[in-house]
Amino acid sequence: MGVLMEVKNLVTRFQTQEGTIYAVNDVSYTLHEGETLGVVGESGSGKSVHALSIMGLIPMPPGKITNGEVWFQGRDLLKLSREEMRLVRGAEIAMIFQDPMTSLNPVLTVGTQITEALKLHLGMNNAQADNRAAELIDMVGIPDARKRLKNYPHQFSGGMRQRIMIAMALSCNPKLLIADEPTTALDVTIQAQIIELVKQLQKELKMAMIWITHDLGVVAGMADTIQVMYGGRIVERGPIKSVFGDPRNAYTLGLLTSLPRLDEGHNRQRLTQIEGSPPDMRVEPVGDSFAPRNPYRTERCWTETPPLRQAEGSVDGHMVAAWYDLRQARKQQQQQMEGKR
Amino acid sequence: MSAAAPKLGNPSAQNQNDVILKVRGLKKHFPINSGIVFQRQVGAVRAVDDVSFDVIRGETLGLVGESGCGKSTTGRTILQLYRPTAGTVEFEGRDLTSVKGEELRALRREMQIIFQDPFASLNPRMTVGSIVSEPLQIHNVKRGKELREYVESLLEKVGLNPFYINRYPHEFSGGQRQRIGIARALALNPKFIVCDEPISALDVSIQAQVVNLLEDLQEELGLTYLFIAHDLSMVRHICDRVAVMYLGKIVELAPTDELYDNPLHPYTQALLSAVPVPDPMVEENRQRILITGDLPSPANPPKGCNFNTRCPVRMDVCFRDPDPELIEVSPGHWVACHRVP
Ligand SMILES: Nc1ncnc2c1ncn2[C@@H]1O[C@H](COP(=O)(O)OP(=O)(O)OP(=O)(O)O)[C@@H](O)[C@H]1O
Ligand SMILES: Nc1ncnc2c1ncn2[C@@H]1O[C@H](COP(=O)(O)OP(=O)(O)OP(=O)(O)O)[C@@H](O)[C@H]1O
Ligand code: SF4
Ligand SMILES: [Mg+2]
Ligand SMILES: [Mg+2]
Prior knowledge:
The complex is a heterodimer. Chain A contains twelve helices and twelve strands. Chain A has helices at 47-55, 82-91, 110-122, 126-139, 145-148, 158-170, 188-205, 216-222, 240-245, 250-258, 299-303, 326-340; strands spanning 3-16, 19-32, 36-41, 63-72, 75-76, 93-96, 176-180, 208-212, 225-230, 233-239, 309-310, 319-320. In chain A, helix 3 crosses helix 4 (126-139), helix 4 crosses helix 6 and helix 6 packs parallel to helix 7 (188-205). By secondary structure, chain B is of the alpha/beta class. Chain B is globular. One magnesium ion binds at residues 47-48, 180 of chain A.
């Protein structure tokens, strides 16, 4: 598959009354056509800001992209004018958000909102747009499509609004769909419906997807590649089976082992916990920002930022940012424990 | 009609007869009013609609189900924060619904609640010390130096440095704030705590810390928990028994492993199959039971079985007969469905 997007050295900051917020710190990666990338990490780790930076949706001020390039179809999106970017958004790259009410206009009918986009981006006339809108609403599993187009957003349930958002996002056949926690506010049964729907549509439309979530289970079920963020950086990324099966960054390992699993029996073993709290984004990051919580840290972690590079002995494209060798460190730890026994 | 009251059936409880809380036929209906000058009641939200169960001393009983199914209302009505529309709640043999004033206040000391949102549930203008000591002052339990020392010991117990006693909530992270909420709940030495989604608002890397703390405290202090949650993996880890709610009613109740390994109600089956598992190998081979449609409104529940609008295996009787009763199909395993047994 060809390269669809290349993000290079993206840095985004916010100037607030409390000082500078170091939201995204030197993020680089490549996304391929048709690929599904799952982005995980804790609250405040820069997942949304990184996506909004790509989409040209960072409020400026207080925000500022101080460095970076985003290459998409031969153009650097960060260099486009506001008007040019507006045309890219919706037509080539679409985005759906956690709260559908932030992107649905409460005073316009759902039909009007979808047809506007079709007329703007695809130059359809009224009749064509109406037909296509009904098709889209039907496609996302809302019965009685034609009638429902006349309804306002508040006349739908949360899960239905989320499906309408998806219909709107897909209306112009984008090459890339960025979904920012689109199912977090929904119940698991509705989440499962929506994920099935999106997977199926993705196959039909052959688009790439960036799926932002804090739910590692969701990523495990739908992504090709996982990207773990911490403190505004990518700390690990790679094919999902490789990263889940053989994590090389201590934060990824901590996340995976602290989660109880549905398919494991009830036992009152203590959960493995990650000590401490997430980093304060108001402090300029020095070194590896996970160091204070990392039992495997080395001296170097305090002072130098580890670059993201190919993980030794793992599959191609499994990248990790760490000064320590997690495999080695865990092996030693195990030997010590056995030695004690 | 009153649902069959579950008999005691908790294989993991040491003393099978040691029921701390007995809930029978509990209902909480919220009136829906209309009219501007003359308010009249035009309907009711049946938030909790005839719920019966026991809680055994020292256990953790899980209460799960979709958003709006009545979990929080059940918890609050048990604690008499809402007065029930019907039914009884016996705490250590005394019916809370028939006591008032000083007697109720005294009983309430033994029962506490921990809320979901550690950001909203703490008064931002109070210091940590005054937040934690407020219940002690209301009940006039301790004073002066003794009070201060006691509060410090509580902070220590929940893993906070007593040094922080004069700080304000905004100076703490989410996990630390939840610890403050827990310290406050523990202040009056309660026996029973309703944990209403105590970890939902926390980062994944922090959740394990709080869950471990709750488990340690339970062991140390012999606490009994009603644990309300929608993270079914965490519920499997933490709970001894689990009750599944749907639209104001309990549809299934069983010891944890029995419920997860052998779910009998079609809703429980769909719910469990929708939970993502953080393991790409498992996800690859998983068959989901997808249910369509959204949760009906508790103001207008369907005729017949509450689940008949979404149930993949519904039959004619499910629309004709009244809602199925909760019956014990094997020791300790209760189900409300015409198809079972
Ligand atoms: N408009 C803004 N003004 C100031 N700071 C902001 C703004 N938007 C985001 N930030 C800050 O940037 C950092 C990264 O935020 P971001 O929203 O990307 O986190 P996230 O990883 O998406 O977290 P979550 O899981 O909570 O959505 C945070 O510290 C956040 O407070
Ligand atoms: N004070 C109230 N007045 C009127 N209706 C209420 C009130 N509190 C709750 N309800 C309604 O009762 C029903 C049950 O609400 P409840 O908060 O108990 O659900 P829940 O299971 O805790 O949901 P969630 O998972 O979203 O917290 C909902 O329809 C809700 O809108
Ligand atoms: S009673 Fe009927 S509709 Fe209700 S859960 Fe059972 S089979 Fe489904
Ligand atoms: Mg976000
Ligand atoms: Mg609730």
